[in-house]
Each structure stands twice: as structure tokens, then as C-alpha cells.
Amino acid sequence: MHNLKLSDCKILYLIRKQCFNDIWTENDFILMLSNKLYFGFRIDEKGFILCRKILDEIEIITFGVIPIYRRQGLGRRLLQSVINYVKTTSENNKIFLEVAEDNTPARSLYKSFGFQQISIRKDYYNSITKIKNAVVMQLLTY
Ligand SMILES: CC(C)(COP(=O)(O)OP(=O)(O)OC[C@H]1O[C@@H](n2cnc3c(N)ncnc32)[C@H](O)[C@@H]1OP(=O)(O)O)[C@@H](O)C(=O)NCCC(=O)NCCS
User: Fold this and answer.
1) 45 is catalytic
2) Measured CA angle at 21 (ends 8, 66), to 5 deg
């Protein structure tokens, strides 16, 4: 497990490309990781989790494990690293995220960690081919 660094942006871009069908660029990662409010963790070139600090909350911005390494516990380890981070810092005590309503693997993972659904954002994911609702989930760590 490594803390994310600016020099990881190419790897993060390549992992994300295998996890999501979208147009994030390497530069998107550079912009985020140049800002000290962003942080996260990576396991080799297999998966990563990227978060942002907002006041007393941590938002999970993006999170993925490449398909050939899924169901081996890497997603669980990455999410646990964020929870450990939040528990060891006094200024943050909430983690929240948005997940597509039909994303069963991710929703099961979050639920198994005790994340609770707090709202629905209608039509939040809006691509040419599909419009989906987002489920907003939160974990309180105090
Ligand atoms: C969500 C994701 C990160 C999980 O990574 P992973 O390394 O496969 O997760 P783990 O092996 O640690 O699995 C942990 C738990 O998640 C749930 N889970 C994972 N894949 C699942 C699946 N296909 N179906 C149902 N539950 C699943 C299970 O509860 C699993 O625990 P178990 O293996 O003991 O049953 C991965 O599927 C992924 O990258 N998906 C595409 C990107 C994505 O959706 N990211 C999240 C956006 S909010």
C-alpha cells in the first residue's frame, strides 16, 4: 500500500481507464494531486482510492481495482486504509461518496463497511448512452 504521489498520475490514469468508461485524463489526476486537500492510496498498479478533505469530511472521489485483480480483497484493503486514516486524524470523522444505483459490487462493499444511504441524486450520471441515479452514502467514524 502506497500513499498517492504526484508521480503516480500516469499509473492512476491507466488504472482508472480499465475501471470506468469515461474521459478522465492524466492531467485531471495531476490537477487533483497538486492540491494538498487530495490524498489516497494505491496497491501497485492494481487499484487505487482517491479522496478529498472538505472541512471535517472526507469524500471518496474515485476508487477502482482493475478487472483481473477484483474479488481478491484489494478494494476492501484500499477502503480500510481511508477509514484508518480518518480514525487517526482528529479533524475528520465522516466519509461520504456517490455510487451509481446499479453498481452492485461497490454498493455491497460500502454496505459491508457500514456505510448508510443518505440520499439519492436523480440522473446524476448522465452519459450519451445511459442516465443513472447516484446513491449518496456516508460512514461516521466516531
Ligand atoms: C468496487 C471495486 C473497487 C471492488 O474491488 P474488489 O477488489 O473487487 O473488492 P474486494 O475483493 O475487496 O471485495 C470486497 C467486497 O465487495 C463486494 N463485492 C465485490 N465485488 C462484488 C461483486 N461483483 N458482486 C457483489 N459484491 C461484490 C463483496 O461484499 C466483497 O466481499 P466478499 O468478496 O467477501 O464477498 C471493483 O469492483 C471496481 O473497481 N469496480 C469498478 C469501479 C467502481 O465501481 N468503483 C467504485 C465507484 S463508487
Assistant:
1) no
2) 50
